[in-house]
Write a structure and sequence with these properties.
By secondary structure, this protein is α+β, with helices and mostly antiparallel strands. Helix content is 31%, strand content 32%. The protein has 16 helices and 41 strands. The longest helix is centred in the first third of the chain and has 47 residues.
Length: 797
Amino acid sequence: MQELHTALRIRQVALHLAVNLTVIFAIALASFGLMSAASNAFAQTAGQAAGQAADTMPVIKASFVRPNDMNMGALLLPSTRPGQYVEAPRLATDVDIAVNGPIARVKVTQRFENPSEGWVEGIYVFPLPEDSAVDTLRMRVGDRLIEGVIKVREEARQIYEEAKREGRKAALLEQQRDNLFTNNIANIGPGETVIVYIEYQQTVRQDHGEFSLRFPMVVAPRYNPQPVIQMVDFDNKGGSGFGVVDPVPDRDTIEAPILDPRENAKINPVTLTVRLAAGFPLGTVESPYHEITSKEQDAETRILTLKNDTVPADRDFELKWRATGEAPNAALFTEEVDGKHYLLAFLTPPRIAPDKLPKKDREVIFIIDNSGSMAGESIEQAKLALDDALTRLKPADTFNVVRFDDTFEILFDDAVRADGENLAIARAFVNRLTADGGTEMLPALQAALIDRNAGDTERVRQVVFITDGAIGNEQQLFDAIAQQRGRSRVFTVGIGSAPNSFFMTRAAELGRGTFTHIGATSEVREKMGAFFAKLENPVMTGLSAEMAGGAGVGAKLSEVSPDPLPDLYLGEPVVLAAVTDKPEGMLAIGGDFAGNPWQVNMDLAQATKGEGIGKLWARRKIAALEAERSYGTDWEVLNREVEEVALAHHLVSSRTSLVAVDVKVTRPEGEDVSSTKLPLNLPAGWDADKWFADEEADVQGDVPSPQKTFLQNFRKQATQLVAAAPTSEAAAEVARANQALTLPQTATPAERNMIIGLILMLLAVMTGVILRMYGRVGRKVRRAEAARNADARSRLP
């Protein structure tokens, strides 16, 4: 009986253990689900409402509103009161552009208004031209004007954060990309307005006798590929192991909340004035995307303003002008700064008819972006552009088409002849494309750069990239172009109302090609015609610049930028900046023009004295240094050089920032400050239904809008969890997968499934242990019962 009692007790303990373990694992799985849901809810709130930093404090003494109370577009931050919200800071921008010949000076005024009753920090993500030399930051607080100072990036951030903690007003201007900046304004009091002034200098673009200037108004939402686990070099001495590599390490910085235009009026009003002093008698002056009014000052000068006074910041502004007759074909400017002489030269080669240029047959690989960001007008522009390009191919040319979203597809196994049958197949392929999914550019670009006919000297190989460039991992693309281009030349066609111009220009520079922008369907035929004429062949190659002849014999030219000078295509000018030890003698620019030697001498004695020429040189020098990163040059060395140039010329760069701090403490002790990113408009022409996907689709696992931040945040957390303790075999599989030319599966919850799988495996092992324990107990119970029965039978009479 004692044996039976013991066995039954063991069985009872085992049952309790099984129940408890089951409950524990149920709680673990439920917690995992709640964590995922919480992550999703948090990220959705961040994307749809605040976009706040992780250390956001609640707004104190907030003025609460309800959505129905609003009569204008605004970002509403969730409050502690059910159904009530706090309005985020408002923004208004004024732009003043002064154009003098080929140089523009731009002043941007940003007014940050705090409509709430709490203290806030406003964070504004905004674009500027990719070649802008940003040198000025001022902050107006009441009647005080605080001048910004240039500091190394980390030092500037430290100064700003200290002022924020102490309750002083401060502004911090940082560059995140060449064309993407953030402005942080700390301690804006209840009902207060803080005004920030930003100034920069840039050059005017010239192409086929047309001069143009773009002012970008909105940062388009960007697709950021997720971190991956791969082999990494930890100590630069051969020591390697598995690590998480993030292609967009600053993803949280460059993202901003987007206001849904289906439910809100557009926000962030902009006023804009251009004072155009062309330097020659003006002919046509037009803005293709905005209505403008023009007042003529004289034959060479116009004052241009927006017809409607203000416009929402939802698309790039562009101004184009031509001369009544022949525009100047050369210009030379000089400036002396701290004993150094800087020069800026513009030179247009002689005109030549396209049919006079030497021609070769071509192998053209077209890449078309049909990801979700292209939905709306952009995909139609892209399809028309590609169709037009196919029409311009000659029968002796070969071609192929690659399309991509979060997958990619190559139309033909190899480049095929541009005959009627193949062109018809390509047109049918392009016509059926719809815009959906993520923007995984890298695999498509790498596939297009694979040259199966590398030894072919009879054809020139060209890769034409048609995209809006709405990505955050530009550096990965630049590295691929620089390291895998081979004999190919890369050309970019920027599509839509707010293309990523930094990606377009840098990709074309690294690819020894050129670029164009198409912002409206009506522009496709004209711009693609001019673009394809450029693709025929470079007009000028082997460009060089040196000091020669005249009174300046012995003068030295140094630090020519860009270096090397790029090839020129039909209609494009030579634009170079350089440093010389004395402004004397002749600047000789020469190269091979349409197969013949060509040289022009420009007399420095006739150069125009200019302002900001040194800053324009410095901006080009910094861009050249940063481009070197794609060729494997030591980043630390390059960063030090960038810091040195930027600090010397008071410029914002990837390594330097402008910071302005008020000496007066304005935020009362005990009052907290709430941080929030200011909302942006969805770019004009984008499909809001695609971008703001229904939540039901997310729940079902169908993700028509992969840019949804909740999925990205979840995958980021899941990847970090897996990276913390990967099994050797799983890690090896991941590494092999990452090294292969396969598509990252960013549209599937792979990392989440891995975690769930690990938990279920552990649960299965524990369940097996419990069942084996239960089986042993059961056998003991049965033996005890058999012994008891035998004993009972033995006592029968």
